[in-house]
Inverse folding.
């Protein structure tokens, strides 16, 4: 097994728990404000726990809502509220392996069909089943080799 395939498998295992939280949508006002409010904590109380001004907490809540807050700021605020920031990525295809497979099939189809059109222009058209077999073989090769062109 090559090193890259092993890395993909190991990362897929690490990302698996995040799969279950992928559908969770952040509260409209942001997590900071939602949790602070649910706990009954005032802006001043959070500011005191974090060692900053009330206005700074309000600004952080605004930045979170706008999506411009940093991970470090979120981590620090979470710690001030006795929480832990959890951060991760969730592959849209369900796993990195499935994402690689999809990209390999797309690239293989593009390569094979481009060649097929050229051959057709030269009156050497391949049968549809031969084209499908070529796409499958090329996709297998691309998944095994994972060239950088897979991500173009």
């Amino acid at each position: 097994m090559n090193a890259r395939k092993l890395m993909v498998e190991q990362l897929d295992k690490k990302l698996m728990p995040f799969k279950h939280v992928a559908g969770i949508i952040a509260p409209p006002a942001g997590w900071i404000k939602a949790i602070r409010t649910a706990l009954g904590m005032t802006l001043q109380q959070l500011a005191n726990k974090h060692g900053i001004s009330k206005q700074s907490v309000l600004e952080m809540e605004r930045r979170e809502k706008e999506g411009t807050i940093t991970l470090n700021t979120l981590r620090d605020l979470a710690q001030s509220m006795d929480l832990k920031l959890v951060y991760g990525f969730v592959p849209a295809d369900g796993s990195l392996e499935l994402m690689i497979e999809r990209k390999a099939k797309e690239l293989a189809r593009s390569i094979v069909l481009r060649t097929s059109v050229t051959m057709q222009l030269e009156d050497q058209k391949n049968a549809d089943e031969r084209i499908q077999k070529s796409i499958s073989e090329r996709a297998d090769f691309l998944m095994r080799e994972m060239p950088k062109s897979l991500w173009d």
Notes: The chain has a mean pLDDT of 90. The helical segments are 3-19, 31-38, 43-50, 54-66, 71-80, 96-121, 128-145. DSSP finds seven helices and no strands in the chain.
